[in-house]
Structures are given as structure tokens and as C-alpha cells.
Amino acid sequence: MRPDVHIALVHHPVLNKTGEIVATAVTNLDIHDNARSARTYGVASYHIVTPLDAQVELVSRILGHWRDGFGARRVPNRVDAMNLVCVSRTLEDAIAAIADGAGRRPFVVATAARRLPGSVTYAAMRDRMGREPGPFLIVFGTGYGLADSIVASADALLEPIGDPSDWNHLSVRAATAITLDRLLGERG
Amino acid sequence: MRPDVHIALVHHPVLNKTGEIVATAVTNLDIHDNARSARTYGVASYHIVTPLDAQVELVSRILGHWRDGFGARRVPNRVDAMNLVCVSRTLEDAIAAIADGAGRRPFVVATAARRLPGSVTYAAMRDRMGREPGPFLIVFGTGYGLADSIVASADALLEPIGDPSDWNHLSVRAATAITLDRLLGERG
Predict the structure, then answer these.
(1) Which of A168, B23, B90, B146 could tie A162 with a disulfide, CB 3.0–4.6 Å?
(2) A120: which DSSP letter?
(3) Contacts of B32 by beta carbon, 8 Å cutoff, 6+ apart
(4) Would the CB atoms of A171 and B39 count as touching at under 8 Å?
């Protein structure tokens, strides 16, 4: 049985290059790529987190195009992926929505490209997802990564994917795909 | 010691939705995301394969911006990733360039999202890359996948990432990232 796993892509609060808290812009391809990765790995929902009215409106229009509009007719399989996408104004709203559906607050797993104290390995988290029913929420940051407040309030933090002492600047689309494969992919 | 691995992203000959051979357009984010994944996993070069003059010109301009232009000043770490990118008009040209550098023709590994006869597992290819010096060239297709002629002429074909009997429509950016992680990622 697959665990009940959800993902969130946070656009606020995240860090910019100089470590300040900012809100980043939602990117069309972040919606598509992560929705397709989520659908491939049996993820139950994909939350785009942005507090900005104009961005919420933009995401809603993109989703409409790919769920019911011309995009849905042109690429029918994309509907299945786009149906996983929700918009939330805060990460807490996304957590509440998942808790509403599951009857239980999700176990929140933060991610970071930098080495931070107390991180858990992919193998340990994969084991946990195989043993416990969930729900689990894996949280990814745009910009230069999740704000410390989100990492601190999460129930666990995953180790970095690459070697933080070497070049370690994966796109968030690549990091999401690799994380889902490591935690949920078939092992042959 | 890391094996000598190269990747190529083919825009012609690839399939469209109805199985015809087409040339797809190069996407800015395909250049960036795959260059960043390549750099993270120690890939030696990333070949964008397109026969179209206008596309070759476009890629060259994008590379200039990120290697020497404003992009390089704004995001200095991106230079290291973009320096891996080459443009080739055919896959055979990319193979020849790698052979020139290595003094030996690369072992060419095709990829496909559909189940095809004779594919090898990621574990087997990972083993091989650990034992043999290479060079290896992993070939990814845009559109609806590599033309049969490219798969047939390759030295090996990797198994699909997802379950081809289920929903299996990863973006090529996600597929490239997952493939590199499975073949070259650290195993903790």
C-alpha cells in the first residue's frame, strides 16, 4: 500500500540570495513539472503556497486551462496531473486542508539544499513512510530555500540531495523529482 | 572515481503525439535545469541536439547571457553549470565530439518512457558505470520520446522510470534528474 503523501511548493516565506525573507513568483513550469512528478509517484495532492492575490489568480487561470480548457483537450493526460494541484495562502492552510481530508494532521517534512543540524536520511524517511499510514507532507522552497521558521516548525528535515560542500544548486523541479523517487520510487 | 558520463537532449529526430518524426523547439528551462542537474552529479558535458539554425543561434545567445553576460553576474554559480552545455546538430556530432575528447567512442545509452524489449535496469547500468571507465552518453528525448532509429542504434536502453502501465508522463527535466540520481547519486 502506498503511503498518503502530499507535497507543497512554498513561495513565501523563502530566502533570497542575501538571506532575506521574500515572496517569489509562481512559475508555470513549477506547476506542471511537479504535478507530473506527483502524479507519477502517487502523491495525493500538490499545494502551491503563495500569499499574493495576483499569484493565486494566475495559478487558478493556469489550472482552468489545463483542467477544462484548451490545454485539457490538447494534452488529456495532463488533466490527471493538474487535478492534484491546490493553491494555499500559507503552509498552515495547506496543512489544515490535508488534516481536514485525512482526519489527522500531516507529518511535515522540510527540505533544504544546505546542511542543517538534525536532518534525517532518505532511507530513514522511506522506511517511516512504509511503516506509518501518514499523511505526510513534504515541503519544498523556491528562491534560495525555505525560511528558518518553516524548517524549525517541521516535524523532520531531509538531508540535502547533493554534496553541500560541492556545487549544489539543483532546480526545485529536479529536487522534487529526485526526492519523490528516493522516497516513493520502486526499488528493483 | 566518478565515471566519465555525458548527457544529450535530442530535439530531432523525436516523436510527436501521433508518432510522427518531428523537430521540437529548445526550451530555456531544459537548458538550465539539465545543466544544473548535470553539474550536481559530475556529468562532463551536456549536448543540446537540434538541426535548426535558428535554434542553434538561440541556444548560443542563452549560453552567452549566462556565461559572460548579465546572467553570469547576477547568478555566478550558474556559470559552472552552463559551461557544460554544447550544441550539436545531430546526435552523431555529439558522439563524435565526446569521442574526440576521450579518444574512444562513448557507450550510448538511450532512454524511453515506454516499455521496449531489451532494456537494462538502472542497477545494472550503475554497476557498469562503476566498473568501466567510459565515456558513457545518456540520451534523452523531448516531445513524445526518441525516434526508433536512435533507440535502435544505441548500445543500451534504460528501463522506464515509472510504471508504463500506469500514468507515466514525467517532464524530461524530471526524468533527467531522476536518471542521474539513480545512476550516479551517492548511496547512503
Answers:
(1) A168
(2) B
(3) A171, B66, B78, B81, B82
(4) no
